[in-house]
Amino acid sequence: MASAHAFLIPAGAGRPTRVRLPNRWSKASDADTDGAFMVSEYLLTADIPPHVHVRQHESFYVLDGALTVRVGNEEFSANLGDFVFLPSDVPHALAAAGDSPPRLLAIATPNASSGGVWPVMQGVGAAWSGFGRRAWAGAVDPSRSDAGDGPGWRRSGAGRWR
Q1: Sequence spans of domains, the chain
Q2: How would you classify residue 146: left for phi > 0, otherwise alpha for psi between -120 and 50, otherwise beta?
Q3: Cα angle at 156 between 154 and 157, to 5 degrees?
Q4: Pick from 111, 6, 9: nearest CA to 52
Q5: In angstroms, how far is CA 47 from the centroid of its own chain?
């Protein structure tokens, strides 16, 4: 195991990462933290479709704006200053809830059976590269077990699922 070291990431900057997602700035990778966690800043310019993380818990702190979060069968709004925790193995999706894209601080932590968070992020990056900004919302294959609960997760409007 490598030894973690101190560093500073200036405002508006991010660390190099193997997974490049639009409007995402890596603040600390799993390599920086010896696999303990990852931190990224997101400007949510595209909805994130229903998906499941089997190796990580995911948390968001809303830095600006508002978003709609669907977790399992629940849906709620998260606004400026709110904190959202998404446990592993539970389908979830995110969508902007206002006129401007929300800005989020995302923290990913491995669950007890995880080999770290990198394998999950690698899959997300591969999926993103095949789709455009808003195409995410229609890109989910509801027949897949990791795509939420099928038609119940289809987007029906800004920040809403039906």
Answers
A1: 24-139
A2: alpha
A3: 135
A4: 111
A5: 10
Q: Is the pLDDT of residue 114 over 70?
A: no
pLDDT above 90 covers what percent of the chain? 32
Which backbone phi and psi does 119 adopt, to 5 degrees? -55, -35
Q: How far apart are CA 128 and CA 10, in angstroms?
A: 26
Question: Has residue 134 got a pLDDT over 70?
Answer: no
pLDDT digits (tens, 9 = 90+) for 20-44: 667 888 898 888 888 888 899 999 9
Architecture of the CATH domain 24-139: Sandwich (2.60)
